[in-house]
Design brief:
about 325 residues, alpha/beta, Rossmann fold, 13 strands, elongated, binds beta-D-fucofuranose
């Protein structure tokens, strides 16, 4: 697949386009009192959005971005479903959207596998599907576009920093994995592992904390119990929420997070960035959740029969403590 990185300039450009396109839609379409929900041509576009759930700060920011972009003023009617991280429930939600005859379906797929049948059902019903955030293993013929982040590259960035800072001395690392079977958990592991290959960082354990703060805390408590707080040097958390849970567990065991046990995580949500500024996390790779405008622009294009870039990557930054201090006041999530 050809990668296309959208710089923040391009991102802002597309966002501006989406807003312009939508306000003209809003003038003609949403004033239509007939209740006509047919797609395109100035009518309200009815969109079913199957969100994963509400597991993290990243997810809250993503949901808000989507709800803002798919607003009535922008010419959309959004039918929102959050599946509480239950894959079967998420697939059922998509089936519900198909039977309601929505104009388009947007999915943030909890896991990569298992989407072939329901995507085929949407295709058979002539309902276009746009994926946002996570990827699927199903054929890309079954959806119009995917918009999200390069999770493997995020893992590489985190791993390269770990290799540079800690790779030259014996370092025992534990990993807090995201939801099992999800694209970011798979790819962030692959990217990180490739970047630390040949260094003195040794992965002594790796378990899922399901991308939640409670999950990160309880898995970290287990690691501390099994290995002893003095025998863990580094935590790699697949998201900030799990890192924040691990911080609580490390403190409760009488150690100092960020000093006795170093922590690297991914997302750069506000609470994670604050912990980095406070010295309790050592490095964070960004994962931008503000995808709403890009997704709305893609939905509008597809519904109107216009062409759409099938793979849209949004670029991520990375922060050490000094960079976090500088960036925190202007962060939008
Ligand atoms: O990193 C995590 C969330 O899929 C990129 O899901 C997303 C991940 C994000 O729960 O915080």
């Amino acid at each position: 697949m050809k990668k296309r990185f959208l710089t923040s300039m391009a991102f802002a450009g597309v966002a501006a386009f989406a807003l312009t396109a939508c306000s003209s839609d809003g003038d003609g379409g949403s004033a239509d009192a007939s209740g006509d929900t047919g797609g395109g041509g100035g009518d309200t576009i009815v969109v079913g959005f199957a969100q994963t759930g509400s597991e993290s700060g990243w997810r809250s920011a993503n949901t808000e971005s989507m709800k803002t972009a798919f607003s009535e003023e922008n010419g959309f009617e959004l039918i929102f479903n959050a599946a509480d991280n239950d894959t079967a429930a998420q697939i059922e939600a998509v089936r519900g959207f198909i039977s309601q005859g929505v104009d388009a379906i947007v999915i943030a797929p909890i896991v990569e596998d298992g989407w072939d049948d329901v995507l085929q059902e949407a295709a058979d019903a002539n309902i276009p599907v746009i994926l946002e955030d996570r990827t699927v293993s199903a054929s890309d013929d079954l959806y119009a576009a995917w918009i999200g982040l390069d999770f493997e590259e995020e893992g590489v960035k985190a791993g390269e920093w770990a290799a540079e800072m800690y790779g030259g001395e014996a370092t025992k690392m534990v990993v807090l994995e995201g939801t099992t079977g999800s694209a970011p958990a798979n790819d962030r592991a692959t990217g990180f592992d490739s970047a630390i290959e040949g260094t003195m960082i040794e992965k002594i354990d790796s378990q899922t904390g399901d991308f939640t703060r409670d999950g990160g805390k309880s898995v970290m408590e287990g690691f501390i119990q099994n290995y002893g707080v003095d025998n863990i040097d580094l935590v790699y958390a697949h998201n900030d929420d799990m890192a924040l849970g691990a911080i609580e567990a490390i403190k409760a065991a009488g150690a100092v997070p960020g000093e006795d046990i170093k922590i690297i995580s991914i997302d750069a949500v506000h609470d994670g960035m604050q912990a980095l500024v406070d010295g309790e996390i050592n490095y964070i790779v960004e994962c931008n959740p503000l995808l709403g405008d890009l997704v709305a622009a893609a939905v509008t294009a597809v519904v109107n029969g216009d062409s759409v870039e099938p793979v849209q990557y949004v670029e991520d930054l990375a922060f050490d403590q000094a960079a976090a201090e500088a960036a925190l006041p202007d962060r939008k999530y």
